[in-house]
Structures are given as C-alpha cells and as structure tokens.
C-alpha cells in the first residue's frame, strides 16, 4: 500500500476517534469502536489504533458504569433526605444495583451495639425460601466475617458448596446453600473507621464474582455505608417516637381509667356522656343506666376487702361483656357504676338493663376462695340533650336506682 494511502487511512481513523471522544465527552451516545474497527480486519496486537479502540471502549464502559453508580447513589441519598427507613433503602438497592453487581439475593446484617455479634436485619431473595431471617445472629469473635470487617475489603467466595465442605461448622453458609446460593460477595459497611454491618450479595451460579465487582463496591462503599447508616438512624428515631406515642397513649388511657376495674373513671364517663348527648341527632335519645352491687358492704365485712375488690372486677367484666359495641361503662363511685348507651330508647334501655341484671346474677362470683351469689340493682332513663345538663340526667337515673334498692333489690326501675 502506498505510504500516502496508509497515512490517509491513519488520519481518517484518528479523526474518527477524535470525533468519537468529543461525543463521549459531551454525553452523546457513541458506537463501540472495536465493532467499527473490526470491519477493517485490524489486529490490536499489531495496530496501535486498534489497541486504542479497545481501550477507548473500555473507558466508555467504565464511564457508563460510573454514571449508573452516581445515579443510584444520588437516588439513595435523596431517599434518605426525604426521610426513608433502612428497609426501603435496601429494597431500592436490590432493585437498582443488579446492573452493577450480579445477584439473586441480598442480605443485610448489622453489628450489635456491643460489637460482639452480627445480626441479620433484612433479606430479599429470588432463590428459594429465605433461610436467614431478621434476628438471626452469630458471634463475631474468631469468625471469617470479623476478618472481613477488620480488613474493610469485599470478599468473594465463588464456590459455596466447596467452602461449606471445608467449613462444616458454618451454619450461615449451610443456610445460604440450602436456599440455593452457589457464590457470594460479602461487602463490609464502614462509616469512618467504624464497621456497622455487612451486605451479602449471593448468586445462584458458581464463579459469578470477579475483581471488577470488588473495584465497583470499593468506589461506592463509603457512600452506600453512610446512606444505610443514616436511614437506619432515621428508622430508629421513627421507631422511638412511635414507642413514645404509644406510651403517651397508654398513660393518657390510664389517666381516665379506674385502676382496679379498668372501667372509665367518674370524670371520663361524665365527659363521654356529655359527648354522646352532643352527638345525638335531633330527637334521638341516650340511655343512662346506674348500677349498684346489692349488699356490697356485707361482702367486705364477711369476706374481706380483697373479696370486695374481686367482686367489683367481676361485676365490671360481666357488665362489659353484655354491652353493645359503642356502649360505655364507668365506675361512678364505690360499688356504683354509670353506663352510657347511645342511640337507645326508653323500652330498649330497660331491656338492656334487664340483660345486664341477669348477667350479674346468672352464676355465683368466685371471690378468691369464697363463692357467693351477687346481684345488682339498676336505675335507667332515656334522655335527650335538651332534657338538661348531664349531672341532672344522671341524678334522674340515680333516683330510679334508689327506688330499685329500696323495693327489694335485684331489679330494674325506669325513671
């Protein structure tokens, strides 16, 4: 070939390479140079430009991979900024990282606060049923994972069955093999110089992982570790706040409950009565029942105050069991109880009170060694909001109760 022709060919190829690099630098799509060059039947081992094409293709692949890494990391950081828990972050890693690191399963475990154990927190698998679930824990001392965390370097095991044969004491490996894993890529999570946990990538195929995967994880390890730790801390804060809210709720509920019987206390039941009267529709009535254990003083005198307490507890249980959903019971004072039955008329409230009376007298009370028949008297009214303030309406039911107590007890009297 003439020298001029050869030089012209080199110049054309060099110009094409330069244009290719300009497009790559501007973020434009570029073809694989080795595919273009293959049409020339050039050999990279003897043609420097062909060798350059190979290296440029590798560079383009690396740039594409790094762009994908940065995109994934940006999305993860954005998730944490929005306040997302660690489980959601790990789910996103499972969905997003498969084009960076191959896997059929990812598991995450955290170092315990005292640094003695590694405890599984999360796993997602496309293998068989998950064999290492949340809470599974193993001591770190003397383990291979302790060495991985100490070195801070990813570890590749490309034949888990062979590794298990050499390390039959490894329960975690046995579980992963049983699940269907054949190779693993163990990546330490380190924030600063503090190991916080491990990501376990697992493949159903043996010999899946290469040095390139170690290099990829090294590039993103610090950012991934920080994102996981931040999301974990956020989740801990959310969980702590949830427990505080639950505790506040329990304390608030305890403040309106009678500590012995669990019924609403006097102030709370009166508040609920006032609310029921406000909520009643035009012309609707609310049933008010005053209930009192008959001859309660004799139980205390003859059986002791512990037996009296047992009678109050059982009395409350039987009343509550016989009420409708939405009906309310409160301890008004001593052995006297106030019941609020929304949306019920005069005849219905009397029928309800009869049901309550029968529930109390149906079987003897076990008073802690003493078995005794207990009865109760009931005074009932059906009222509307315009009939008067709650205290006056309760007083009307109380007057009916007084009549029941003084006309033989164990009966219902309507006011």
TrEMBL record:
A molecular function GO annotation: diguanylate cyclase activity
CDD domains: GGDEF
UniProt cross-references to InterPro entries, sorted A to Z: Diguanylate_Cyclase, GAF, GAF-like_dom_sf, GGDEF_dom, Nucleotide_cyclase, Rev_trsase/Diguanyl_cyclase
GO cellular component: plasma membrane
Reaction it catalyzes: 2 GTP = 3',3'-c-di-GMP + 2 diphosphate
GGDEF domain location: 284-415
Pfam families noted in UniProt: GAF_2, GGDEF
GO BP: cell adhesion involved in single-species biofilm formation; negative regulation of bacterial-type flagellum-dependent cell motility
Top-level EC class: transferase
Enzyme Commission (EC) number: 2.7.7.65
Name recorded for this polypeptide: diguanylate cyclase
Organism: Rhodoplanes elegans
